[in-house]
Design a protein that fits this description.
Distance between the termini: 37 Å
Helix content: over 70%
Number of domains: 2
Structural class: mainly alpha
Low-confidence stretches: none
Radius of gyration: 26 Å
Strand content: under 5%
Largest sheet: 2 strands, parallel
Strand order of the largest sheet: 1-2
Mean pLDDT: 87
Number of strands: 2
Order of helices and strands: HEHHHHHEHH
Amino acid sequence: MILSKVRLKWKLTFKALELVFLILLLKLVAVRFNLEIFSLNSLYGAIVSGNVFLIGFLTTGVLSDYKESEKLPNEIAMCLDAITDELIIAKGRDNSEISKEGLGHISLLSKSIHKWFFREIRTREIFSMISKLNDYFLVLEKSVPPNFIVRLKQEQSNLRRFINRIHTIRETSFNASGYAIAEIITTLMCVALIFTGIDPWFEGLFFLAFVSFMTIYMVIFIKDLDNPFGYYNHDNLSENISLKSIDEVVERIEEKTTVAK
C-alpha cells in the first residue's frame, strides 16, 4: 500500500526525468562535437519567464475544475443514499412490490455508476437508468404524499446534473491551444539550450536540467490534472479524484436493500 502511494506520488517526476535525461544526452553530444552554435543572452530569460507565466495561467484554469470535481463523487453518493432511504420509507408504508423493485434498481444504478467512472458503461446508459426511476415514482404517487415524490424527483434531478458535469469535465480539455503553445515553447527552449554554449559546460548542463525539468514537469502535470476522472487511463493515475465515497455508498445501498427485503 505504501509502495503504491510512493509510486503514484513520484510517477510524474519519473516521466519528466525520462525526457530530461534524453535532453542532457543530446547536450553532451552537442558539447562533444562542438555543435553549440548559439550564444547565451538575455532573451533566454524572457522566454523562460513567458513560458512560466503561460504555465501558471493554465494551472489556475484547471485547478478551478479540479476543486469542483473533488465534491462531485460525494454529491452523487448523497443523492443515491437519499433516494434509497426514501424508497425504504415507501416500502415501510405499503410494502408494495414496486418499492422492492425500486430498491433493486437503485442498487444496480449505484454499481453501474461505479463502473461508469471506469468507462465500462456509457453515459447515456446511466441517464437511461436514472430516467427508469420515473416508472417507480409514478406508481408510488398513488400511495405516498406528494412532497415525498417531490424529494425523490429533486434528488433524481441532482443526480443527472452531477453525472452530466463529470461527463463534461472528462470529455473536454480546458484549453487545448494553450497546451499546444506551452509544449511548443518548452520544446523550442530546450532545443535552443542544447545548442547554446555555456562555460563551463557542466554549469550549462545543470541549468539545462533544471529549466527543462521544471517546465516539462509542469506541462505534464497540468495535462494530467485536466482530467481528474481518468481512472480508465493507466497513464493518468496520479491526480485522480478519490472514489471512496462511491465505493462506500455502493456497499451501504447493498446492505440497506438486503435488510429491507
